[in-house]
Amino acid sequence: MNARVSILSLTTTVVLAFVSSVGVSAFQASREHLSEQEVELVKEAQMLDKRIGVFIKAADRRVQVITGIETTNPKQLKKDSELWGPLPTGTRAELISDISRIFDEAITNIDDVSLRDEKNPLVAVALRNLAAAATRIVGQLKPLAEQAKSDLEASSFDQLVENAESILQAANKLPPPIEKKGKGKTEN
């Protein structure tokens, strides 16, 4: 009888662990990583570099909520909220997962344009901008990764770092920017 109770208890524990892990995955999938206003801004940004700029700003807004550091003055914050909507809400794990999914969507956008027109100069510009943002954002959040309070949060950090690394690997494969003659600027 004791063996039967132990097996039943173990089976119940395994089933509950499986159901809770499936529930966490389903919860992450049901949460939108961009607000309605951000989705509209992405749709409006037809040029790749502008679209990637929207993704970067959306990720930065989540970093602002996570870190609690206001990077803009109150006037700019009001202007941003009119265009971008209110700052995103959620747990730290949810917001980090949002950033990871934003990076993933940005990667997909760059890949799509690159596949259609591999000589498009905006691909390099967008990828360099995204790589700089990924480096900055991961650098800002890295100290918080060590303080992860749940497996979900740790998993979100891992996915974020993985996406950032794939962005940096792709950016490192780009040829160096070409210097424009006479203007003193570089072309990506």
Q: How would you explain this protein's 3D organization?
A:
The protein is mainly alpha-helical. It folds into two domains: 1-30; 34-187, no CATH class. It has seven helices and two strands. Strands 1-2 form a two-stranded antiparallel sheet. Helix 2 (36-44) runs antiparallel to helix 3, helix 3 (48-67) packs parallel to helix 6 (121-145) and helix 5 (92-116) runs antiparallel to helix 6. Mean pLDDT is 81; it is low at 1-28.
What are the segments in which pLDDT stays under 50 over at least 5 consecutive residues? 1-28
**DSSP strand content:** under 5%
Class computed from helices, strands and strand pairing: mainly alpha
Which word captures the global form? globular
Summarize, please:
With 188 residues, the chain is mainly α. 75% of the residues lie in helices and 2% in strands.
Features:
188 residues; mainly alpha; two-stranded antiparallel ribbon; 7 helices; 2 strands; globular; disordered N terminus
Blueprint of the fold:
Layout: H1 2-30, H2 36-44, H3 48-67, H4 74-84, H5 92-116, H6 121-145, H7 151-172, E1 178-179, E2 186-187
Antiparallel strand pairs: 1-2
Helix pairs in contact: 2-3, 3-5, 3-6, 5-6, 5-7, 6-7
